[in-house]
Amino acid sequence: MPDAPARWLLPALLLVAPAVLAEPAPAPSIVMRERWGGEEVEYPEALRHEPATVLLHHAGVAWRAGADPAASMRGLLRFSREEKGWPDVPYHFVVAPDGRIFEGRDLRYAPDTNTSFDPTGYVNVELLGNFEEQRVNATQLDAAVRVVAWLADRLEMPTADLATHAGVAPGQTSCPGADFLRYLDGGSFHAAVDAARAGEPVEIEVLPPLPDGPQAFAEAEEPAVPKRSAN
Q: Where is this region: Disordered (predicted)?
């Protein structure tokens, strides 16, 4: 079965007038919960909210080339339930270094957080990797742009309102990491989201390494090892 757009759009999102969103950004391909091994969840009604703003994160754990994002999702689910006492993973969507987008928490329910701020109204989008120690790669950037554009259209959210974890919890975290944050602070991520929302080609240039910043990318696969000559 091919990956599909998320099946559980909020009724509030579905009721957006077609005249307002004549040509919204297309839904990206989503790896659904059952595909990565996520269990069905019963959420406390106290977590029900009206989603309004996309909030960007990084995992804060260095990505190991060749690792399985589905296994990472299952590990995050176990950690969330067993260590934190949360009903589900704290992110609504998770973007892997290979560009796949994974379904997480139901959009109708507010995320959980390790920091002190009110998460009500936020839609959490996480990029796997630690962008204090790694660089975000082009494939992951492109996928993040597309899922954010799709969500922003359906939330009727101005692109300028896109938020980061460090922005809503100042002094508590460096999330989403310096290497990813510069695309947001410099405006290139927002420009790419606006292009996607307008139905234009998405182009986001990968920036050179930060001075004294990470050099290596969070790569989906191990680099190929050159074959040695028999001579």
A: 209-231
